Here is the input.
Amino acid sequence: MARQDYRFFHPFRVRYSEIDAQSVVFNAHYLTYFDTAITEFFRHLGYDHQGYVKRTGKDFHLVKSLVLYEKPILFDAEIEVGVRIEKIGRSSITFALAIFAKGEETRYCTGEIVWVNTDQTTHKPEPVDNEFLELFETFETVKK
Here is the structure.
């Protein structure tokens, strides 16, 4: 995925607490960057996650996370995480993510996060709501 494949980016600056003994970002922090960027993506779209959970009794469960490490990210680097919806299935949402150097084409990694919409009482998958679909379709083209 190239930088131009994303319409939304969230910035970070690598903190000392995020690096390992080799002075690069510790691998688990990439998922934290992804999770935070997805939250900010929803905020950017005006999505009220807590309201959705209270109103419907449904929430999204993480079922897959994938990180492809391409280049180490060093302490104090300014980075931007690109987020886009790759696909919406009957009950799932697949996010495509990538971390880039701030304002540059340099890509550090790509990733994929898959969520399943789940009834919080039964913990069984439920179809993705139409209001959710409409929210994404107003922002970008989504595969179904």
